[in-house]
Amino acid sequence: MIYYISFYIFTIMSGVLYHFYRNKIFLLIVVFAAILFSGFRYDAGNDFFSYYAILTGEKIHSDLEFFSNNLVNLSKYLNEPYIFYFLTSLIYMALMVYGLHKFNALGFSSLILLLFFAASWLTSFGYVRQFVAISLLFLATAYLVKGKDLKFFFFTILAFLFHKSAVIGGLIYFYYKVFGKKEHALSIYLLCYLFFYFVFVDIIFFITSFVGFYHRYIVQPTNSDGFGIFLVLTFLFIVQTCLAKFFKIRDRNFWVANNLFFLGVVIYASLLNFGEYVVRVAYFLVPFVYVSTFFLLKNMKGRVRIFYFGLIFSLTFFTYFYTLYLASNNPTRDFLTNYKFYFLL
Question: Choosing a second label site near 62 at 20 to 30 A (CA), which of 7, 175, 210, 242?
Answer without folding.
Answer: 210
